[in-house]
Specification:
Distance between the termini of chain B: 41 Å
Order of helices and strands of chain A: EEEEEEEEEEE
Structural class of chain A: mainly beta
Largest interface: A-B, 25 and 26 residues
Radius of gyration of chain B: 13 Å
Helix content of chain A: under 10%
Distance between the termini of chain A: 38 Å
Number of helices of chain B: 0
Helix content of chain B: under 10%
Oligomer: heterodimer
Number of strands of chain A: 11
Order of helices and strands of chain B: EEEEEEEEEEE
Structural class of chain B: mainly beta
Strand content of chain B: over 45%
Radius of gyration of chain A: 13 Å
Number of helices of chain A: 0
Number of strands of chain B: 11
């Protein structure tokens, strides 16, 4: 069966520090991968999605970037964190070639920028 | 773009009672409406979805209704149990592509024993 892993589960970082959140998917090949942010009292906002290695699409302009160095690995990064980057970050996947498949989410990373 | 509003933001019910969460959407072209449940410390999980060619869908204690004319859809949970306590998100999309989903702001449901 397929599983998705995100780490770390929680992270406290000072303003101006770099960020690297990692997500990996097991049990499937060539998944579509997504990064979402969930701010308090707000819905899930799609930040990035990827349909293949090195293929990243950004949905909103921001202080973050994403990379997909391997087929089942998706990384969310920042060179210098802002206070407004605080939130709950979720990685998700859908099977390749099936745009209508439901999203499968990881358990998320709670990021607090101080 | 699509805008989805979800109400209420918090909801408390007694165990065994029913719970109803409502969402409205703005884009009349939207035709796919999923509901996700997020338990504490976990990612959201799809619990039910409905497409615009049907008005109601039921799965055991959970049902979703859709009114395309009024552009609103609702989640109904009957005979609530403590394990139903979670955050529920509605979403709307002009297709079933995950990339085009617009989520509501979520409802924290608490089922009181």
């Amino acid at each position: 069966s397929q599983t998705i892993h995100q780490w770390p589960a929680t992270l406290v970082q000072p303003v101006g520090s770099p960020l690297s959140l990692e997500c990996t998917v097991e049990g499937t090949s060539n998944p579509n991968l997504y990064w979402y942010r969930q701010a308090a009292g707000r819905g899930l906002q799609l930040l990035f999605y990827s349909v293949g290695i090195g293929q990243i699409s950004s949905e909103v302009p921001q202080n973050l970037s994403a990379s997909r160095p391997q087929d089942r690995q998706f990384i969310l990064s920042s060179k210098k964190l802002l206070l407004s980057d605080s939130g709950f970050y979720l990685c998700a996947w859908t099977p390749i070639g099936t745009e209508d498949s439901p999203l499968h989410f990881g358990n998320g990373t709670r990021l607090t920028v101080t | 773009g699509e805008n989805v509003e979800q109400h209420p933001s918090t909801l408390s019910v007694q165990e065994g009672d029913s719970a109803v969460i409502k969402c409205t959407y703005s884009d009349s072209a939207s035709n796919y409406f999923p509901w996700y449940k997020q338990e504490l410390g976990k990612g959201p999980q799809l619990i039910i979805d409905i497409r615009s060619n049907v008005g109601e869908k039921k799965d055991q204690r959970i049902a979703v209704t859709l009114n395309k004319t009024a552009k609103h859809f609702s989640l109904h949970i009957t005979e609530t149990q403590p394990e139903d306590s979670a955050v529920y998100f509605c979403a709307a999309s002009i297709s079933q592509s995950a990339r085009q989903l617009t989520f509501g702001s979520g409802t924290q449901l608490t089922v009181l024993p």
